[in-house]
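User: Here's a chain of 389 residues. Predict its fold as tokens.
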Amino acid sequence: MCESNGVGGKLSGMKRFFVTGVLVLSFGVRAWAHSTPNSVVFLDFYRDAVAVELTLPMNELETAAGVPLLAAPQDAVARRGAALRDYVLARLHAAAPDGRPWTVEVRGMAAVLNQAQPDVDVRVWMQPPPGAPLRRFVLDYSVICREAPSHAALVSVRNDWNSAIFSGQPKLLGVVQYTAATLVVDRTHGSFWQGFGSVVGLGMRHIAGGGDHLLFLFVLLLPAPLRAAGGRWTTFRGLKGSVGQLLKIVTAFTVGHSLTLIAGGLGGLRLPGRPVEVLIAVSILVTAVHAMRPWFAGREVFVAGGFGLVHGLAFADSIAPFGFSPWHMAMTILGFNLGVELMQAALVLTAVPPLILLSGSRYYVMVRMTGAALAGGAALVWIGERVRW
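Assistant: Prediction complete.
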């Protein structure tokens, strides 16, 4: 059963905004001046099928399909679902380049009512005939358009791994109307590696742009080359001991955030954004205090892993639009995590040699205390900002 990303009032409103912008660009002010609401068609490319989501204005659909909907819009789908399904299937077809028809199946329908203009969202599953390409076909679409010549449907790709198009940035393919009811869909360009590279880049950008993640790891590394004794950081633990401790901390953080990233991506584990962001800031404050005075000396690995679990929840929110199928979500997690690890490795390779060199000198106390104080101050500011969201 395919999952639709756009069902719901909030996303329907976003799609209406998207329609407005595209219509202004595509048709100009004169075309937008008419009062007829238009439809939105989103295509999601899976490994062996194409999922289609139609957002249809209920008043236009009522007139075109000839079935009463607006008298009781909340029950429209329950009462008229069979008639609406037959109507959509009679006006939505796909054909392979050699003319063979695709299998088209309506898999879901829902009324969207919490807005001024109610819609009907229809989820369709399309599969090509044996041997036909999945990514090249002719779409024949006349839902509402056949009965209402002024009506238009904007057809966009919403998810296409091979060309790195994901839910947040749909790409307009064309507009179908009464006078132009067919559209050639050709997505044969691109490759698996283009999509994989895009999520690797996303992971790298997320870490590079999210200074709180890197700051947490950096502050945790500050005292790693030192021994703790008598409630203070004391002497350099040696090159071998320092490198070993640093690797343990980085590995623990990686394991922690990877676990919750997988749980969030594949298992649906989610927490509200505000407490997660507050906890991330708290993690920086805790490690900043520890960098000044040993607070959990000898337990840094467990702290890094535990707070890594929290950071992974934030990572999972970032990749949610990319996982429109289990296969693509698995590849997204792998690629995103690889991007995160590349940026972490860059931080470690950049910061660790100077830390080890300085940790044996009398200047390291000043470096450590200054870095910890600045990080702690930033964490306090973030906590205040995020609590007030």
